[in-house]
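Thread title: Can someone regenerate the structure for this chain?

I was given the following input by a collaborator and told the matching structure tokens would be attached. They weren't. Posting the sequence so someone can regenerate them.
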Amino acid sequence: MKTDVQVITTKYSTANSTYDTIIKLLSSTITALFDSAKDYLRF
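Best answer:
Regenerated them for you:
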């Protein structure tokens, strides 16, 4: 029983950190694209 809980916890932790990484990547990408568009539209 304890090992099952540990496995589930580990899987959840891994999925959670992967999700956080993806969100940070998307956020920085969107910010970079927005800044590029802003500079482009300024001209």
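Helices lie at 2-42.
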